[in-house]
Fold:
Amino acid sequence: MNINYQSYLKNYPDEKGFFGEFGGAYIPDELKAAFKEIDDAYNTICKSSKFINELRRIRKEFQGRPTPVYHCERLSQSIGNAQIYMKREDLNHSGAHKLNHCMGEGLLAKYMGKKKLIAETGAGQHGVALATAAAFFGLECEIHMGEVDIKKQAPNVARMKVLGAKVIPVTFGLKTLKEAVDSAFMAYMKEYKDAIYCIGSVVGPHPFPKMVRDFQTVVGFEAREQFQEMTGELPDALVACVGGGSNSAGLFMPFLADDVEIYGVEPMGKGHKIGEHAASITYGEPGVMHGFNSIMLKDDKGEPAPVYSNASGLDYPSVGPEHAFLHKAGRIKYKYVTDEEAIDAFFKLSRLEGIIPALESSHAVAYAMKLAKEKKTGSILVNLSGRGDKDLEYVIEKHGDKFL
Structure:
């Protein structure tokens, strides 16, 4: 597949939202006008100096950007000679990368005259970020979250409520991220004239995979400049976790044209059987879900398969269409990490560097550690997409006997 990565961000997706065969907008007729309105509004304001300058001001004065790149010297020394660096998105206001696109979506909602933000959340970081954005812009906020994740992520549920969001428990199906998306989409269909559905990753119908990617590329553009300033060169490899794929898209896209290896890390959970993992690209096949065509895990009836990960933000049976496209093109390599490996990385980073990572980010850290052993030399830049405060109770309950 011949792709000009120098001009990639301008050419993909196409005007219908496709990255090759993946993407698009498979939505009910009654919502087509609403999504066209969102697309038109975004294409207008993303070229507006007023919008761009306001978003830059918000990122600097409210979010605390740029976030730093940090050299993990002790972690690197514990493995060998390869050097591991972290893009510290855990230091972004609200504790994860999610605020990068939530503030953009909130600004878009204000421009469109919407009064309410509706969204789903898995690990709760997107929910917290959107509740933060809603409070900042003076908008109503409604977050749909599976009952299983509500129990696992109690600190983030509390934060959403403190910020003024209404948290809607999702009680059907597996009661996790997929069902939260289903529930939020159903709610949006009833209120699309006054609300905007702020999708939490590079998934969903066009234009959301493009919009969320664009807002998240601030991570990669910052990291590229910072790493060169620190070392005089680009990293040899990039690593980020992939569920839907927003944090990884944000880091990866500004490096596509560079001579840099890129690795997306999926959750293998407890094993390789359906229902034990959420490794969509590793074991999936093309399919349409939640309004977009991508690679997804299917059951024996061709429906979205049950999925599992100890990281609530990764247990999704599909992946962003751009990731599917870049996997097929061969530009990004997709690997996997088990629950056990992620937990090991969680404690190693905490004890060697004083940084407690989110379980989602721990998957990326775990693979970077494996890659460092394999490569023996060179530099690896990891997107530390979120902090682990939200996971402490769960980790202590499940693994405290082994590590504490």
User: Anything to note?
Assistant: The chain has a mean pLDDT of 96. The first helix runs from residue 8 to 11. Residues 59 and 65 are 5 Å apart (CA to CA).
